[in-house]
Amino acid sequence: MKLRTIIDNFTATSLAIIVHVVLLGILVVSLDWTTPSVRPGATVKPVEAIVVDESQVAEEIEQIKKREEKKRKEEQKRTKDLERDAQKARDQRREEERRLSELQRRLAEDKRKQDDLARRQREEAAKSLAEVRREQARELEALKKLRREESEMEKRRLEEEKALAVLAAQHKALAEEKRTIEEAKRNSEAERKRVEDQTRKAKAAQEAEQRRVAALAAAATAKAAQEKRKKEEAEKKRKATQAQKNAEEAQKKAEEAKRKAEEKRKRVEAERKRAEAERKRAEAQERRKQEEAALREQLAIEQAQMDAQRARLRDRHLAEYIGQIQATVNRNWIRPTAAPKGLKCTVKVAQIPGGDVVSVIITKGSGNVAFDRSVENAVLRSSPLPQPKDPSLFAREIIFEFEPED
Question: What is the pTM assigned to this prediction?
Fold first, then answer.
């Protein structure tokens, strides 16, 4: 409304000035400004005044008013068109700002989701890594314990080998002693038989003597035989006692060897079970390694997907950033009167942090100099340029194609 008032006032003032100028021009044209020279004796003619036709002046003024009225209406129409275009541009700008705000909200939501996903993946990876490390520590401790047990078993094995060697020597001594006892028994039996044979022979040779000295010989023989039997019985008893004692010791040693053999069997069984447990542990460790490899591969795939998604998001943000600059330049662009529709050009803009434009270069012109110059002026009027939400997208040189909406 203020612009329309200014235009109306300017039109009225211009009309008044034009009317006065026309009247003054008619008056100047109608008057004869030359001073005639009067010769002596000549007759001075009266000045002939030209009468101005008021109807002609009024008609001229009316035509001027009509032209001014027409011009004023055209100006009013142009002003309305400008206001309509300005309102349309404001509506378009508000719509663009709304879409930009919605886009920024979506981008922020996407970024938050991506950050949450990356954080959860990092936490899960950290937990998995901590669990793997704890499992490795437990396996290392079990391996150390196993090695200590193997060392102790090796010591026990050496001690058992020594004990078996001692036991073998004892068995050998026992067998030798048993052989000696049996030999002594055989010798005792032979001696008994020899004594009995000699006794019979003595009895046969001394029958007469025995009969003669029956009482004395019988008593002496009985006494000698009794003493001999006592000695033989005592010797037999001693040897039997010794043999029994040796047999008991041998039995004890055999039982000890059996006990040690049983312990050895149990140790062998324990070693077999330990080897089986070691095999199962190795298989479990191999499965864990395979699972870890699969997990690392899955994490690598997810990381690649996230990187690709970030790249797509960055490209989209960059396109939006360039689109904001194009929209700003488009709003500040004024179409040249002689520029046809369908023109476009490629613009290279140099800027500094903050968006202030340093230089504008048309790298690929439209073929219309006025159009190219209007684009350069529009870029300069758009300074400072819009800034990206992501500071990493800022570039000192930006190249974009300007193609106005015809």
Answer: 0.32
